[in-house]
Structure to design on (110 residues):
């Protein structure tokens, strides 16, 4: 588990990788976290626990964006096969300049 503060002033990121834009939210230009996966993982779940404020989880790796803003009250998460490589992780807020505390969690159990 890693703690952080969500948000930033940028409404979207452009010019990274394939040009696919992430889901909505405000974030910083630099990722809040870097994750290095040393060997292919058949399953990994990255999730956010944020007690206040709406957040979105955005991950960029292998020239692709992965994003989840949660649904029906569920906390955002991204899960599945994670190939070896470096992943940049952002936690966005629903409004500019809003910073909400969160815990970023990692699980290899389905």
């Amino acid at each position: 588990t890693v703690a952080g503060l969500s948000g930033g002033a940028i409404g979207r990121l452009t010019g990274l990788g394939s040009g696919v834009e992430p889901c909505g939210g405000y974030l910083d230009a630099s990722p809040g976290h870097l994750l290095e996966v040393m060997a292919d993982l058949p399953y990994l779940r990255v999730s956010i626990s944020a007690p206040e404020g709406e957040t979105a989880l955005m991950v960029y790796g292998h020239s692709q964006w992965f994003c989840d803003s949660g649904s029906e009250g569920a906390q955002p998460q991204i899960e599945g096969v994670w190939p070896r490589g470096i992943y940049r992780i952002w936690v966005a807020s629903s409004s500019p300049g809003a910073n909400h505390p969160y815990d970023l969690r990692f699980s290899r159990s389905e």
